[in-house]
Write a structure and sequence with these properties.
Length: 255
């Protein structure tokens, strides 16, 4: 009965760890796929935009839109930014004579792969000001780290499945370590994103009538990291304690 008690404890720990792991993977995937990492709220009314709306939109989507161009558009048009896309809200029909109460529509454009790796300049938008290495590498890391994090968790899940098939708890330690590393990557991602936004706003300060805040996509990534650490701790605890008790049981039987 003691053995059964032991097994129940480990089974419970492993089930909880698997559930935490699954939730954190879903949160991570959702945060990568959504556009609300950072949001700008423009307090001035929309009529200022309707006149310049068309030209802002054309600049925003053009292939040559540099960082300063699209950041200014984000400031002016209630923009939201994700890891992969940037969005602005503009009037549907941008004629100068349209009334201010026009329907607003949100339009998004994706960052291309080259956008993710392009150099950031010391003065955003000014190619002659030299490369800002800090911001360039922070941006590249915030693009790569979430994929590393999800990759580690999926690899951990595969090892876990093999462990179930082999009826062994030893691989659970490896799964735990991989989840711990995934948690570190997620923390790194959150840190890089916050630092990147801070540095950008030092170069391009928010206008007086614009408020910026981290959005819910960012919060999902923040919640994902502690879940990964908790799952890691449970996997490692179950495997180590089980190994210890198994050794004690064997010694007891031999004696």
């Amino acid at each position: 009965s003691e053995g059964a008690m032991m097994d129940n404890r480990f089974a419970t720990a492993l089930v909880i760890a698997c559930v935490l792991s699954l939730i954190s993977t879903i949160y991570m995937a959702a945060s990568i796929g959504t556009d609300f990492w950072y949001e700008y709220h423009t307090l001035s009314p929309a009529e200022n935009v309707s006149e310049a709306g068309r030209s802002i939109w054309e600049e925003f989507v053009s292939k040559d839109a540099d960082e300063k161009t699209y950041t200014d558009a984000l400031f002016r048009c209630n923009g939201t930014v994700g890891l992969w896309r940037r969005c602005i809200t503009v009037p549907k029909n941008s004629h100068w004579y349209s009334p201010p109460e026009t329907d607003m529509t949100t339009n998004c454009i994706s960052f291309s792969l080259s956008d993710q790796f392009v150099e950031k300049y010391i003065e955003p938008g000014n190619h002659n000001s030299g490369t800002d290495l800090n911001r360039t590498y922070l941006w590249r890391l915030q693009f790569l780290l979430p994929f590393v994090s999800i990759g580690l968790m999926c690899f951990g899940a595969l090892i876990g499945l093999c462990a179930c098939a082999c009826r062994s708890l030893y691989p659970a330690i490896a799964t735990g370590v991989l989840h711990f590393l995934a948690g570190l990557c997620t923390l790194g991602l959150v840190g890089c994103y916050v630092a990147g936004i801070e540095l950008l706003h030092r170069k391009l300060p928010l206008p007086e009538d614009v408020r910026g805040e981290f959005g819910w996509s960012f919060c999902l990534a923040c919640v994902s990291a502690p879940l990964q650490f908790m799952a890691a701790a449970l996997f490692i605890w179950a495997a180590r304690t089980n190994r210890k008790e198994f050794t004690l049981l064997k010694a007891y039987r031999v004696a």
